[in-house]
Amino acid sequence: MVFFKKAISYITEAPHRFVLGAFYIVSAIFVFFLIVGSLLMFYFIKGLPSIDKLGEYTPSLTTSVYDINGEIITEYSVERRSFLTLDKIPLDLQNALIAMEDNNFFNHWGISVKGILRAFTRDVLHRKVRQGGSTITQQLAKLIFLKPERTLSRKIKEIFIAIEIERNFSKQEILQMYFNQIYFGSGVYGVGTASKIYFGKDVENLTLGECALLIGVIPAPERYSPFANPKLAKARRDLVLNRMYEEKYITKDELKKAKEEPLPDKKSVIYYSNAPYFTEYIRQQLEPKYGVEMFWQGGLKIYTTLDLKMQKLAEDIFEKKLAEYEAKNESKTDVKTATSTLQGAFVALDTKTGGIKIMIGGRNYRESQFNRAVQAKRQAGSTFKPFVWLTALLNGYTPATMVYDSPMAFYSDSRMNWHLIDNATDQSTINDAIEPFLENPDFKIWMPSNLDNKFLGAITLRRALEKSRNLASVYLVNKLGPAAVVDTAYKAGIKSKLDAVPSIGLGTSLVTVLDMTSAFNTFANSGIYVEPFAILRVSDHNGKVLEENFPKETESFRPQEVYLLSNMMKGVVKRGTARVVSRIKRPVAGKTGTTQDSKDTWFIGFTPDVTAGAWMGYDDFSKITMSDWTGGGTVAPWWTDIMEQVLSEYPVRDFTVPEKIIFVNIDEDSGKIAGPKCKNKFMESFISGTEPKEFSDCDKKDQ
């Protein structure tokens, strides 16, 4: 009986034991998978990047450099992209993306379970991880945070990141980030730049068909490019349009009309690379200031003083003329020493502001990035003489003061101090004076000369400048002192180190084109030095101004003495070594320059509005052996060609005559007041009270 009771009890309790056992087994399995799942989740989550940086999302942006009129000069970028807010992106473009990539975008929480299962099934069937099944949010996660690898690990990370993005950002913010991040091939990122590349227009002006085309190329920009594969591109565009119609974003008529739109057949040029020497000059100033990352990826807007229209015009003339010189004088060039290309430089400044309007640093930036306008230090030759003449005016000389264009010689002592040999006024007396010292190794002699090896004797200060007489310049330096000339040059704006030696008047110290041009600009600006500058302002991609620059003025000289100098320098153009410049039918002042052995040729000229400096020579200091190798015969002509065009934008006007300036008719030969019958008379300018008081006897001579 007991046996049967136990048997019945066992049988009746068996299901309970089975259920309990099953429960324990299932629980163990559940706990196992829970632990494994937690460990796996911890494994993936711990390696996930933080999405905090999305809160201040700023993709790699293009830095743009603009000219003074708002034209783009060039761009700097790692990824070519312009940032847009969502309100600037057409609704058709937004709808096209959603219809094609994620039609449930506004309803899911970052992932599509159906899409993931569909992609998983496809991956199992193909036995490898393939693309697909990703929402827009998942694509954004992949674009910003993950490497472009096809692994299960990356897919799981993508899901977790997408969920986090959805938890922290609105759908509109996600769309905005996506549209600015998506890649369109050829280094182009974001719909802002893509619309300009594909259609040559801003994104807000895109048509429905153009919106569909942009979305259609996203999966494979190079493959679906309308420029490389127009048939595939059209098929993709039409597919997007069909999806938009199915999702009821567009009507049947809109669908038909959009499909009839032509495809673009060539890329629009939006990569600007103008004025390379100037833009490199800009980069060298700003990159150290803001850092490499900010400069190349921060989307800076750099507004400059350059006039791009003038720059292009000047570059064309510059290259054409220098190429002509090479071809015309090829047989006359010293092929034994000229191992480099004939080079040049040109700078134009706004007279009042000092803004750099034109900068040419050489003939071919790709071949040589050396900026000869700011980096090449060359002898200025006779273009340095105006500093000597201004020093004379500051020390009581007038344009009618007589100076001497006569032979002279200097010797140096053991301390390398130079002294004028007294009473050595011709070659014979010079030879006699130096003969006792010829065998002394410490004795050095310097005998300056004129280009034509002639002497004009006593001449007016004006005539000496117009004829660019070397010996008259050395005479003045000896009278005034080299240190005084150096001081004047520094006050005018020269930044290079100058040697206070007798030869300073012949331009033997090394200077740059920008240095000389800015110093001459002080003459054009009535004695006020304005520091040359190139950058007006810099703003970040949000429009916040980071820096703004204004003209920096220094009153270096009184306007009266500077006017006397400028008036004499007008004579250089009208009657002197730069007569070719008089082709410009307006008042222009300037000075030519040629160095010893014609290694450097110059012309620097100015008007009340623009000052421009030009230089030509070889990088290796080879001699320029041409039919007319002076500054007036080589550089001044192409300076004139450029400035004729540049100055056509300005009204014709003369230099302002300061107060206390009077004009007196003088005899050009004696510098004295000219009588009514004098033939060689000239209306000369003087500071009131300094005009000559004595009358010339030219009336008697000319009778």
Give me some keywords for this one:
703 residues; alpha+beta; 41% helix; Penicillin binding protein transpeptidase fold; 5-stranded antiparallel sheet
Structure write-up:
- It is a single chain.
- The chain has 703 residues and is of the alpha+beta class.
- The protein is built from 22 helices and 21 strands.
- Among the domains are: 46 residues; 179 residues, Orthogonal Bundle (Penicillin binding protein transpeptidase fold), CATH 1.10.3810; 41 residues, no CATH class.
- The strands form seven sheets. It has a five-stranded mixed beta sheet.
- A hairpin with a 5-residue loop joins strand 14 and strand 15.
- Helix 8 packs across helix 9 and helix 18 packs across helix 19.
- The radius of gyration is 40 Å and the shape is elongated.
- The termini are far apart.
Which architecture of the domain at 81-259 would the CATH scheme give at its second level? Answer: Orthogonal Bundle
Could you say what the CATH topology of the domain at 81-259 is called? Answer: Penicillin binding protein transpeptidase fold
Spatially, the strands of the biggest sheet line up as 2-1-3-14-15
Rg over CA atoms: 40 Å
Give the biggest sheet. Answer: 5 strands, mixed
Give helix % range. Answer: 40-55%
Average per-residue pLDDT, rounded, comes to 87
SS-based class? alpha+beta
> Which regions contain 5 or more consecutive residues with pLDDT less than 50?
127-131, 334-338
By DSSP, the count of extended strands is: 21
Tally of helical runs? 22
CATH-defined superfamily of the domain at 81-259: Biosynthetic peptidoglycan transglycosylase-like
Overall 3D shape: elongated
CATH class of the domain at 81-259, anyone?
Mainly Alpha
Separation of the first and last Cα atoms? 173 Å
Q: Approximately how much beta-strand content do the residues carry?
A: 5-15%
